[in-house]
Amino acid sequence: MGRKGPRRHLKRFPAPAFWPISKKAFKFAVKPSPGPHPIDRCIPLLSIVRDVLGYAENGREARKIIKEGTIKIDGRIRKDPKFPVGLMDVVEIPKTDEHYRLLPHPQKGLMVHEISKEEAKVKLCRIENKTTVKGGHVQLNLHDGRNKIIRIANPFKPEEDVYKTMDAVKISIPEQEILGHIKLEEGVLALIIGGKNIGLHGRIIKIERGFGRHRSIVTLESIEKDIIKTSLIYTFPVGREEPEISIPKW
Questions:
Q1: Which segments of the chain belong to CATH 3.10.290.10?
Q2: What's 189-239's CATH class?
Q3: DSSP structural state of residue 245
Q4: Which of 37, 91, 143, 202 could form a disulfide with 84 if both were Cys (CB 3.0 to 4.6 A apart)?
Q5: How would CATH label the architecture of 121-181?
Q6: In this predicted structure, what is the pLDDT of residue 72?
Q7: Can you list the positions of beta strands (E) in the chain?
Q8: pLDDT score at 129
Q9: How far apart are the C-alpha atoms of 87 and 112, rounded to whole Å?
């Protein structure tokens, strides 16, 4: 079976449209390394440093900044210029005391949003899948590639297992301890992370379950009392009475 495209390189024209790069200025773009986010839902770290934050004029300067260990992603120093930074990830620059979170944007797909130092200590993750591991314990597979083990005292009565797929958990970074749990249900606040209504948020007023996540429809009411409908796979719970994170008005 033949190759279907370059493995190590990525040209700018087929790169995701929301990347903040000029399509015709140069030939190649930075191809993200394999990591917690797929290529169509992330921005390479080098592009964030150079094109979004403007700390470098070219790729060589951006690589030098990153290789010096001055950038943290979710509380950990990342020295890979191709590291994929995706939804809800926290970007920290300790030298300048700047903190950013990647959130969905109505026109630009993904965009950095400046947050406070206290807010940079937490992160919301959506539960994409659940599995049972040895001993009857439950493993939560989160949207950013993390796996959290929920210890079960009695596998026949798993009272500790209160989590369901598509729910969200609030974790501390970099300790990765679960601080809270937000169920995907009517009445909670949710953020739309895909589709034509990406970047909008509101309170869930109705969930119509269909055959599978793609056929399930969620109806939200925005702050302006507008009615928004989206697919279940694009719905990300962010809070009950108030959002657990700051959400900008783009």
A1: 10-117
A2: mainly beta
A3: S
A4: 37
A5: Beta Barrel (2.40)
A6: 96
A7: 10-11, 28-29, 42-44, 72-73, 76-77, 84-86, 90-93, 98-105, 109-114, 122-132, 138-142, 147-150, 168-172, 178-182, 189-192, 201-208, 217-221, 227-231, 235-239
A8: 95
A9: 10
Q: Cα separations (Å) of 134 from 64, 137, 150, 151, 189?
A: 44, 6, 12, 11, 35
pLDDT digits (tens, 9 = 90+) for 127-184: 999 999 998 999 999 999 999 999 999 988 888 899 999 999 999 999 999 999 999 9
Which sign, positive or negative, has the C-alpha torsion 199, 204, 205, 207? positive
- The whole-angstrom separation of Cα 95 and Cα 92 is 9
Amino acid at 146: R
CATH homologous superfamily of 10-117 equals RNA-binding S4 domain (3.10.290.10)
Q: What is the mean pLDDT of the chain?
A: 92
Residue 1 has pLDDT above 70, yes or no: no
- In order of 54, 183, 207, 218, 248, the CA distances from 203 in angstroms are 35, 13, 11, 10, 16
Task: Supply 83's token pair.
Answer: 């590291």
Which tokens in the block code for residue 103?
């959130």
Query: Quick one: which of 178, 156, 151 has its CA closest to 167?
Result: 178
User: What type of residue sits at position 236?
Assistant: F
